[in-house]
Amino acid sequence: MHFHKVKNEQEVIALLGKMLKEKSDEAIENNGVFRIGVSGGSVVNYLATALTQIDVNFEKFKFFFCDERFVSEGNKESNSGSYKTALLTKTPLKEEQFVCIDIYGTLKECAQDYEEKILKEFDLKSGDIPQFDLLILGIGPDGHTCSLFPQHPLLKEKDHLVAPIDNSPKQPAKRVTMTFPLINNAKMCMFVMCGEGKADIVKRIFKDKENLPAGMVKPLNNELHCLLDEAAGKYI
Q1: Which residues of 76-106 are buried (b: 16+ CB within 10 A; e: fewer)?
Q2: pLDDT bucket at 221, cuts 50 / 70 / 90
Q3: What is the pTM of this model?
Q4: Looking at the DSSP assignment, which residues form a beta bridge with residue 105?
Q5: pLDDT of 57-72, one tens digit each?
């Protein structure tokens, strides 16, 4: 676990940009593509701002979603819709660089289809586990990350890389989410948090070691990074 505590939100975004450039340059040099998974909430604006401040090869970026709400892209709850709105007008990114869910079947079919889409993008077959270059995650006030909530059966999911959830305690109830076998196979995972409202849950997970979903994020080679401003990290 690597903590990066800086003064304020502006410095968090600058650090996020620096790390994005380093990871994307490395991935593109080695594999010709930078595969990044993103979460919703405040991360959308942090990432959108960071990407306007750095010089990267945008053509080689491929965006995936760590979790997604089972809604159309035009719905304000849609993560893919939020990212496209935030990024397509501010960067050279194109719509086809976003790998999104398809809501035209059942929730279960949606999760299965998204897992298949991810495997196809990595040129892998069923049973293989893709390795993302970077997953940017959030933490909710209850300690959830992605759509993996405390004491939910999906915390123990082993067979599916992407799973449906129809009883999310946070609305909307219907979602699809990456599971821990996929999350923890990433080359790097990153939490990005600002503000005093995050301070308590940061302490509970990383200092008090409460058994909460965000504390179960353990990527390969211990490449877990937590970017915090002074307010969010005041107990660390």
Answers
A1: eebbbbbbbebbeeeeebeeebbbbbebeee
A2: confident
A3: 0.96
A4: none
A5: 999 999 999 999 999 9
